[in-house]
Each structure stands twice: as C-alpha cells, then as structure tokens.
Amino acid sequence: MAVKYILFDCDNTIVKSEDVAFAACAELVNEVLAKHGINEQFTGESLIAKFVGHNFRGIMEILQDDYNFKLSAEELNAYVSTEVDRVITKLQAKAEPCDGSMEVLTKLYDEKKYKLAVVSSSALRRVQVSIAKTGQDKFFLADEVYSAATSLPKPTSKPDPAIYLHVLDKYDVKPEECVAIEDSMSGATAAVRAKIPLIGYVGAYLTDAKKDEITDKFASLGCTVVMRHWSEFEKCLAAIEAGRV
Q1: From which residue to which does any coiled coil extend (predicted)?
Q2: Which residues, other chains included, contact 158 with Cβ-Cβ below 8 Å and sequence gap of 6+?
Q3: Residue 244 reports pLDDT greater than 80
Q4: What is the CATH number of domain 5-16+96-241?
Q5: Looking at the predicted structure, is the pLDDT value of residue 89 above 80?
Q6: What's the rounded Cα separation, in Å, for the pair 117 and 167?
C-alpha cells in the first residue's frame, strides 16, 4: 500500500529543542520536588537521560509514583501551563532546525507527493513556537500539527499511542499508509503500538556510542530503518515503501 502521510515528531527530530526545553523543565521539577520535601535535584542533562520523549505531564506522573507524593489535578494543570510558558521563552531564543531537516521538508513540501504532519508529545503552543522559530511552520497547516498534551480529549504522552491513533482516525488512513519519524524510545514505542512503519532518527544524539545504543533499542522494537542524518531520509523512506524492512 502506498505511503500517503509522513508524520514527524518535533523535539530533536526536526527541531533541536530538547536540551533547551529540559533545562527549563528541570528548574520547575526541582521546585515541585522541594515543595514536597524531596531532596532531589535534576539538571537538564539528567532529566533528559531519564525522560527523553516524555512531556512534562508524563514526567510529573512518573515522579509522583517514584517519590510517593500527590498533586491534585488543578495543581498539575497549573504546573503544566507554567512549564510550557518557561520552555517557550527559551525556545523563542534558541531553537534551531535539526541538521538537514529543512532541506528534506522543503523538497517534500514542494513535491506535494505526501501529506505532512507533526505528531508530538509536547504542548501544542510549544510545538507551534518551535516550528515557527525554525521557519518550519510554512510546511504544515495549522490543523496538521498534533499534540498528545493538547489535541486529545484526555491529555497523555508517548509511549501511549493515542496521539497516533487520533491522527489515523482524523485522516481516515491505515497505519501502513503512513511513516513516522521518531528519535526517542517513547516516541518510537508509540508509533510501533499504533502499527505505523517507523524511521528511527539518531542524528540528534551527540556521540556515536549513544547513536549505536539508541539504534539497538530501536531494533528491539522491530525498527530496523535508522537514519543518522536527514540526508539519508529518501533512502530510508524508499526501503519502507519497497517493503524491504
């Protein structure tokens, strides 16, 4: 079956944003933990190592279980809003496109062979700021940007496949008519659970050792199409379309 839709994760897939965002996120996480008497301090680096691919709501839900404290729904929603505001401020100053992503998006947009969409765990406002700051917003209509934190009746986060299932329903397409590009295990797991063919992107990881580690983890999910730079995208997509994976 021919591929019709290409579904892009945002953070550290088309936009270099995770380091910037997790630095702001860590500050708020530490404030919440301290308020509950928990003597734990995260840095942006340690938070990303533990929670890459999760949005703030998902992180806080895990931390409540890990450290045995409870936030009310109202408190959690307020913290989620605060985190988005803080992250957006940093992204407006520092977000950049991932290397080679602009060239790929430009070609896909000009050719008009595929429909393009962004499918992220992050809050919709954050995603919109990220792609606007990098000039990528011109490739996606407003209703082609989806957020697990914002676009669903019940907010969630990858690895829950709900946001991908929502997109499949929205477009009335089968999973095999789409290809997803994800850089994290949580995102990759969400795509796999939705049965969408997947390209694993490891170009945002700084060392070859880390790229090899994530490649092995993708393989454990059954994802054997791995892209180390966006210049490899056409080859990866061709392999999926030809059924060679």
Answers
A1: none
A2: 53, 54, 58, 121, 148, 184, 186, 187, 189, 190
A3: no
A4: 3.40.50.1000
A5: yes
A6: 9
